[in-house]
Amino acid sequence: MSAPLPAIVPAARKATAAVIFLHGLGDTGHGWAEAFAGIRIPHVKYICPHAPTMPVSLNMRMSMPSWFDIYGLSPDANEDEAGIKRASENIKALIDQEVKNGIPSHRIILGGFSQGGALSLYTALTTQQKLAGVVALSCWLPLRKSFPQAAANSVNKDMHVLQCHGDADPLVPFMFGTQTAERMKSLINPANITFKSYRGLPHSACPEEMVDIKRFIEKQLPAIRDE
Questions:
Q1: DSSP E strands: which ranges in the chain?
Q2: Which pairs with CB-CB distance under 8 Å and at least 24 residues apart come from 204-208?
Q3: What's the pLDDT score for residue 146?
Q4: What is the pLDDT of residue 3?
Q5: Distance, C-alpha 151 to centroid of its chain
Q6: What share of the chain is helix, strand, coil (3-state, %, to 5)?
Q7: Distance (Å, whole) CA 93 – CA 96
Q8: Are strands 62-65 and 53-56 parallel, antiparallel or unpaired?
Q9: Which of 24, 81, 140, 149 could potentially form a cystine with 113 if both were Cys, beta carbons 3.0 to 4.6 Å apart?
Q10: Beta-carbon count within 10 A of 80 CB
Q11: What are phi and psi of 18, to 5 degrees?
Q12: 209, 164 contact by CB (below 8 A)
């Protein structure tokens, strides 16, 4: 179940903020680290952890990097509740590690793509760590029936969320994205949720989206004056 150390894009100068970004099913953190290196902001450290390898029910129990098991992609599919909660605790520990390294949690953005985006939303809504925001790409809110109870005393009620989704996504349908945004608006301050769609984009990212992500990070994690 153990995974290799995260791929890291260090800050160009003293790191006073961080982005922790979780890849999608079957992927690793390396590609996303390269993507963030292309939009890096000098005072921000980017951490792209790798999911442990496990058998995935959706893919005939083949072993691959996965944050938790996925049984199906339909809205009524059963979910791996224990696995999602366990993965979320691991991400909270990663946030704690950055806090120990000197970056306060309110200077940390959590994000992810697809399964990683789902885990980032769930973690932000259930953690006691106050975060700067969430970047949720081509994803959904897992264990959605556990909310709003799970988020009732969330410290992140006023966090900013950037949600992005391609309108030609064949894997995680665009409708899942819009429904997730609506659900999120009922759980946190709706004025702080931005949903962006990308015409013709399948289940992937695009340069326009990366520019939007960079702008969001710059806004939520501004440089500190004495840097």
A1: 7-9, 17-22, 44-48, 53-56, 62-65, 108-113, 133-137, 160-166, 193-198
A2: 204/138, 204/166, 205/35, 205/113, 205/137, 205/138, 205/164, 206/166
A3: 85
A4: 67
A5: 17
A6: 35, 20, 40
A7: 5
A8: antiparallel
A9: 24
A10: 20
A11: -145, 155
A12: yes
Active site residues: 114, 169, 203
Cis peptide before 10 (omega within 30 of 0): no
- What the block records as the tokens of 9 is 């894009």
Regions of the chain short of the pLDDT cut 70: 1-3, 149-153, 226-227
Cβ(202)–Cβ(32) below 8 Å? no
Q: Per the structure block, which two tokens stand in for 17?
A: 């903020």
Closest-CA residue to 65 (of 125, 116, 106): 116
Q: Could you tell me which residues come within 8 angstroms of residue 91 by beta carbon, excluding any fewer than 6 positions away?
A: 20, 22, 49, 110, 119, 120, 123
Report the residue count for the chain. 227
Read off the amino acid at residue 42. P
**pLDDT for residue 169:** 97
Alpha helices in 16-80 (DSSP H): 30-37
**Token couple for 227:** 């840097």
What residues contact residue 68 under an 8 Å CB cut-off, 6+ apart?
80, 83, 84, 86, 87, 115, 119, 142
pLDDT at 2: 58
The model's pLDDT over 27-70, given as tens digits with 9 standing for 90+, comes to: 999 999 999 999 999 999 999 999 999 999 999 999 999 999 99
